[in-house]
Amino acid sequence: MFVNRERELNLLEQCYRSDRAELFVLYGRRRVGKTELLRAFCQGKRHLFYVADLGTESASLAEFTRQISRFAFGRAEALSPFASWDAAFGFLASQAAAERLVVVVDEFTYLISANNAIPSILQRIWDTHLQNTRLMLVLCGSYVGLMEQHVLAYRAPLYGRRTAQWQLRSLGFWDAALLMPGYAPEDLVRAYAVLGGIPAYLCQFDAQTALLTNIVENILAQGRFLHDEPRFLLLQELRDPSRYFSVLQAIAGGRTRLNEIAQSAGISTSSISFYLNTLQEMGLIERAVPATESQAHKSKRGIYRLLDHYFRFWFRFVFPNRSLLERGEVEQVRAQIEAELEQFVGLAFESICREFVWRQYQKGRLAFAPQSVGGWWDNNEEVDVVAIGDDAILLGECKWTGKPMGENLLADLERKAQLVTRQGTWRSVSYALFSRSGFTPAVTDRSERDGSLLLITLEMLLGEGQK
Length: 467
Prior knowledge:
The chain is of the alpha/beta class. It has helices at residues 6-16, 34-42, 57-73, 85-95, 108-114, 118-130, 144-152, 173-177, 185-195, 199-202, 211-220, 229-237, 241-252, 258-265, 272-281, 309-318, 322-326, 330-362, 407-421, 441-449, 458-466, and strands at 22-27, 47-51, 101-106, 135-141, 164-167, 285-288, 303-306, 372-377, 382-388, 392-399, 428-435, 453-457. Strand 9 (382-388) and strand 10 (392-399) form a beta hairpin.
């Protein structure tokens, strides 16, 4: 099932409608939906869709020939294998001389693995055969580091030839929810907290089955797709997976500062940034700073944390219990998850609430234009949601508990707000409470009298976010 991706499709369509040759680069981590996006884009268009494999260069060229033959003549063996990539793309250039033709080369990084001169070869072909045609060539790859080094980097052969590029990220909560029809509101949040926004993961769960049963059958059970997915993804995507695994393990274990991560992972502080940057590009981790920091890249208060929800779940419940799971002691792990799941979901609920604030602004429902939306913390205090504008600030508290939020939580938020607002000169200060279980009558009365206090229930959050 393909959902949304409107911005990506719009950019692809803009390139398709141009009157010139286009070289579009699409990249991002595995399972994020790149192939489905391109197949949706290609529907109804004159196109050739080639998926490279981990074979030799000659085998890849032979398969490319067969795909070209099917496109041009309706059968795979109509053409003899092209002797070179120049010859193959020369034929495609003739097919795109007067009419738009989309050629997708999926898993482009496999071709680079077979011959790292492929980008240089393609540069020459572009200059000699393709740039004056009506070809739209789409290069799609998963290995973020390899794509950046050989395709996107300033010194890469194709740097000056590409006409557009897009890094595909995981789905936000409301888009992910479209892949989980039939879930009750609370289970929708729980499932997203476990699986995150990767389409291939979201499709593994069945809304007609209890969430814990889904977890046991699709994650804890050995041999299932999700059971060892983080390990397999790192092996497929990265050249030195053991070091990246050590970095992820350190962050999952509570090491959030650069020096702490380096020490725990056994990597020098001079080298650790390379691994952290790659994991950020893959969407697995993020470097977060308090929302009040005006120059985030220079802030000394930055911390690293797992951004991908499924990796966070896997490192919390699967990886530490791998010995139990290998012995078939699934029930012990299931019991641990059942006991800790609501606490685990709380962090994902906070990210959903921050996403909700952005959506409210985009839909014209926020009284000011936020420059940033995030959290805030110092050594002892924390605010879950902070949206900062030129002259206004919104501070929010999120609670994923079975009890209604009361005046004590509002008073505590107002107290912490005094610490935050010391760092700026905002004339307008407003508050938002996000609650899974509603609010006490006293808080509801306060909100009715005070327009600066917003109360957001789970039903409002889900419903308003979709409109």
